[in-house]
Backbone:
């Protein structure tokens, strides 16, 4: 059975998509998508040998070798331009996901949908989307086994459209802020607590340019988040 997290990622994939799942590990997501009639065919990309072998094994066990091509390689290098219309990248940090997109930009011209699931640092992804003409269309935040995950779905379009208050919306997510569900509040309350701890530690660290810059940065983030949570 697929995790709730990956099930929710799959729910954003348009029916009939040709899918590439990058960093696929066991290829659970592409297998699920084919078995449930969500994707018509799929590529599972993996850069590390162990997970690559796990993906091949999983695809074989499900008898899906004709429908899922398991490929070893870094990021988007496993796909040809025009080969897929939907890409999922899940279970990594936001900066890594953004760097995979950045390095593989030339593969994205014909891609219709990106579904990205950062474990941390979603801000890096929102920044990348804005800079590269991708419009954030939907967001979700969910909790599973005590961990909070975000899902961002984007299409080519007007990248500035969803943003009103840029700093705040980039950090916390324009759609997630509107919803403010329980996982959202839990995540940001925990972040604020952590930032306040860091501030306390920095108070004791003496004053130089670097620490006062860092303090200002954190203070600003605390303000942004507390305004939203109030
Ligand atoms: N996507 C699956 C999920 O959400 O459950 C697996 C997540 S796992 C934590 C991250 C996987 O991404 C690892 O198997 C890792 O080897 C792979 N990975 C990391 N960087 C990658 C890259 N640049 N290209 C392809 N795969 C990568």
Residues:
């Amino acid at each position: 059975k697929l995790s709730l997290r990956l099930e929710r990622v799959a729910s954003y994939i348009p029916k009939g998509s040709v899918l590439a799942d990058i960093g696929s590990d066991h290829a659970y997501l592409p297998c699920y998508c084919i078995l449930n009639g969500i994707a018509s065919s799929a590529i599972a990309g993996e850069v590390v040998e162990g997970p690559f072998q796990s993906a091949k094994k999983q695809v074989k066990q499900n008898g899906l070798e004709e429908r899922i091509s398991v490929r070893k390689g870094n990021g988007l290098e496993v796909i040809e331009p025009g080969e897929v219309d939907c890409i999922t990248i899940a279970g990594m940090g936001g900066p890594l996901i953004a760097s995979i997109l950045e390095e593989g930009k030339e593969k994205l011209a014909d891609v219709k949908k990106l579904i990205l699931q950062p474990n941390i640092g979603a801000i890096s992804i929102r920044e990348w989307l804005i800079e590269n003409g991708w419009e954030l269309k939907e967001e979700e935040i969910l909790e599973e086994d005590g961990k909070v995950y975000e899902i961002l779905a984007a299409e080519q379009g007007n990248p500035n459209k969803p943003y009103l208050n840029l700093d705040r919306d980039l950090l916390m997510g324009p759609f997630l802020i509107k919803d403010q569900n329980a996982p959202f509040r839990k995540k940001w309350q925990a972040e604020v607590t952590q930032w306040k701890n860091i501030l306390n530690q920095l108070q004791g660290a003496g004053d130089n340019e670097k620490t006062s810059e860092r303090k200002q940065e954190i203070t600003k983030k605390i303000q942004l988040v507390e305004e939203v949570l109030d």
Remarks:
- The chain has two domains: 4-179, 183-229.
- The pocket of S-adenosylmethionine is lined by residues 6, 22-25, 45-48, 51, 74-75, 90-92, 100 (CB under 6 Å).
- The mean pLDDT is 96.
